[in-house]
Design goal:
351 residues, alpha/beta, elongated
Length: 351
């Protein structure tokens, strides 16, 4: 073997080891991921409050400065409010919509004081948020008996795709469901190994092939095996980075078409995973992936470590896609089914 080949092999092994360690359970943890028992409604709200604490502090810190010394909502104040919303990563289009609605209410009511503003913002933001209809049963998935429910997971590398799949699998196994995972991101040296760690710890079955294999072939094998073994849920990982949008569209279309040969209406859900801490970059990722394939749910991760949680509002509104899950911490049980009432309460306080 040439010296250059040895170096390449050594480097690939180091990349696998580093990426597998990142965002995966440590060896000190149990061989299977432990999921906390269901929490009460009040403790659930407390967890959401804590997870969105930085967003609340950032948003209301700016809002308090805008309100200081004013007693009524006027044009000058609305200009300042517009700046607060935009700098909180709500997005320009959604911000304009909120401001226009408040202006209409001011014109109708003739007078509005700043003390009423929190209630008005709560109402406007709640109306813009979209959530999935399914709730706690089957951890939010519309599972039907006899046919595996297939979720194709898309998103850029680093957004938390693998971690989200692992946490979702763990929650579903905890709920008594048989889960299959397809490692169809065959382009990254570490992706398959990292996903295998999560699958093993979650108690899910993973179907894999060698690096560089055809992703559609992995998806086909996964669904075929899932059907043969009466699985309840199939989670398909996909590549997060292809050279251009056309390549991405073609790859995702190929995977979808192959899955449809096994289960005619698969995938039932195409979930886009976005890193909430990236702010406006998350909007651009949403544009690229919604143009490349039919996305019908969102998972927004890493909201606990950022003050940019306003992206949840803007992305849900602008793309008309319901938010299915939010990530508010590293724990397996900190992947939460999105509830707009809990989200709004975390920002504005319980009412």
């Amino acid at each position: 073997m040439a010296l250059f080949d040895i170096f390449k092999k050594k480097k690939a092994e180091q990349q696998v080891q580093a990426a597998t360690q990142e965002n995966t359970p440590t060896e000190e943890q149990h061989s299977t991921v432990e999921v906390a028992e269901p929490t009460s409604e009040s403790s659930q709200q407390e967890e959401i409050d804590e997870g969105l604490k930085k967003t609340k502090e950032g948003f209301f810190g700016k809002l308090a400065r805008a309100v200081a010394g004013r007693s009524r909502v006027d044009e000058s104040f609305l200009d300042d409010l517009e700046e607060v919303l935009i700098t909180s990563d709500v997005g320009v289009e959604t911000t304009v919509k909120i401001i226009d609605n408040i202006q209409a209410r001011v014109a109708r009511d003739k007078y509005m004081n700043t003390a009423e503003l929190n209630d008005i913002l709560r109402e406007e933001i709640s109306a813009l948020l979209q959530e999935c209809e399914e709730k706690q049963a089957n951890f939010g998935l519309n599972i039907t008996e006899g046919t595996p429910y297939v979720v194709m997971v898309v998103g850029v590398n680093g957004a938390g795709k693998t971690t989200t799949i692992g946490k979702l699998a763990a929650q579903l196994v905890k709920a008594g469901k048989k889960v299959y995972i397809g490692a169809a991101d065959t382009f990254r040296a570490a992706a398959i190994d990292q996903l295998q760690v999560w699958a093993d710890r979650a108690g899910a079955t993973m179907i894999r092939q060698n690096m560089g294999s055809d992703p559609a072939s992995v998806a086909f094998d996964t669904l075929k095996s899932a059907v043969a073994n009466n699985a309840d849920v199939v989670l398909i990982d996909t590549a997060g980075r292809l050279h251009n949008k056309v390549g991405l569209m073609n790859e995702l279309a190929k995977i979808r078409n192959v899955m449809g040969k096994i289960i005619p209406d698969a995938p039932h859900e195409v979930m886009l995973v976005l890193d909430g801490s990236t702010g406006q970059n998350a909007f651009e990722q949403a544009r690229q992936f919604t143009a490349a394939t039919k996305v019908n749910s969102l998972a927004i991760t890493k909201l606990d470590g950022t003050a940019k949680g306003g992206v949840v509002i803007g992305i849900s509104d602008q793309f008309g896609i319901p938010v299915h899950y939010i990530g508010i911490g590293e724990g397996v049980d900190q992947l939460k089914i999105f509830d707009r009432r809990e989200y709004v309460n975390a920002l504005f306080g319980n009412k």
